[in-house]
Amino acid sequence: MIGVDSVSRLNHVRNMPTTRDYLLRHLDAIELQGYNKVADNTFVNIVPMTTGRLVEELPWNEQKSGEPFDPYNFIWKNFSSSGYFTLYAEDDPRLGIFNYIKRGFRVPPADHYYRPFALALEGDNSVWTSDHHCVGDRFETDMILNYTKDLMKLYHRVPYFGFNFLSRLTHDSISNTASADTPYSNMFRDIDNQGLLNNTVLIFFSDHGMRFGEIRETYIGKLEERLPMMFLVFPKWFYKKYPQITQNLKINRNRLTTPFDIYETLKDILYFTGDVKGDVDVEQRGISLFEEIPVSRSCDHAGILPHWCTCMSQQELSNNDQFYNMSVNYLITYINQQFVLNNVTDMCWPLKLGRTKSVHVIQNNDKLLKYKQSLNDVINRTVSFNAKRVLSTYIFQVAVSLMPGSGEFEASVRYDETTGNFTMAGDISRINKYGHDSDCVHGSLLHKLCFCK
User: Which strands sit side by side in the sheet containing 30-31, from one edge to the other?
Assistant: First the structure.
């Protein structure tokens, strides 16, 4: 498991193209595009990933900040008790998941524990260069990844479990993610070329997107904060040997997933049987990715509080809503513009509204749009809201019947509150037959739009 702090899926697309390309094209990685965090910061998202519980369910609260985490059953303990050699490594000891305003571990949590070395480095300012990102001429990120690579080489023929989390490079700067592209892509290429992934599952992930800064004030920034990257890489022979599991993994790429699901998947990897249950309860909070996650799963089912939920709500507008007519009028104007652009106004009648069947608005829930900040820097389950929500983009699904010809159309149009402009948000669907009504024109778009004169 290799984690990178504060990298949303979209920021990974923007700033780590080489790593992304190697994961998807060469390693056949499974990318979870619907992966949603369940709480605010690193600690409260890693705990569900490694214990299957929310922080308060451990139970743990700030009153226990002076107590070590040794008594809690993290997943690496399960691997260790099953005979696996273990590694735990974080770069910045000040921001350690279990050390920031917390006690950490009294006994090293793994056979190989990077923290003593990290503390020694941190205590010697003379060794740091390049804005505290390099030790002498060595990139700190490379040092951690090489430490992990050494583990993989040493224990290649016996079971091992490694948990790495790197914060310093990406925690404070969204643009620094670009600097992470080369070390991670090199790491994955090296372990692949050396055959170290032939018997290993690689999980490359983040805890959340950027939680502060200018991007955090935007609508897309609010979404990115909640949608971190998540990749799983299995040996290529695994995909062939277990086709049902592989099919489920591919289906789950576009389903709503959370850190709770990663925990259940880790358990299935540890206690692997190759079997698929096939009957999953949609209300089960954590579901292994080896099972097909129900398409009907909601944030409530998955244990995601409303203010972290990025799922869209849909509501039918009444005919006296201002956007009801505005969205319909825009669609009709757009359709008629196609006749002008394609020089067929002498062949096709201009279309007019016959009947509006329905207009639905699809938008993020109001709590997400008004979310301001967490009041507590550790638990972060108590939130405050702005009085005024952030400006958003709305999608209107419009269904109309147009004259002449009684053509029935469905389309999605987008309204941007910032600019006050409409645009199309996809193709136009013709949902009744047009027969020979458009024989005078050519092309799939005009065929479904035109009613010949």
Answer: 30-31, 230-233, 202-206, 2-4, 160-166, 85-90, 112-113
- Looking at the fold, whether 106 and 30 belong to one and the same domain comes out as yes
CA distance 4 to 90: 10
What is the C-alpha to C-alpha distance for residues 123 and 321, in angstroms, rounded to an integer? Answer: 63
Beta strands in 130-267 (DSSP E): 134-135, 138-139, 160-166, 202-206, 230-233
Question: HSE-up of 101 (CA within 13 Å, CB side)?
Answer: 9
- 376: domain CATH number is 3.10.450.10
Q: What's the chain's length in residues?
A: 453
Contacts of 312 (CB under 8 A, 6+ apart): 362, 363, 364, 395
pLDDT at 356: 96
- Residue 219's SS3 state is helix
Q: pLDDT per residue over 177-199, tens digit each?
A: 999 999 999 999 999 999 999 99
Residue linked to tokens 């089912």: 301
Give the span between the Cα atoms of 303 and 226, in whole angstroms: 14
Q: Are residues 284 and 158 in the same domain?
A: yes
Claim to verify: residue 316 and residue 330 sit in the same structural domain: yes
Q: What is the pLDDT of residue 34?
A: 96
* pLDDT single digits (tens) 251-270: 999 999 999 999 999 999 99
Task: Please tell me the total count of domains within the chain.
Answer: 2
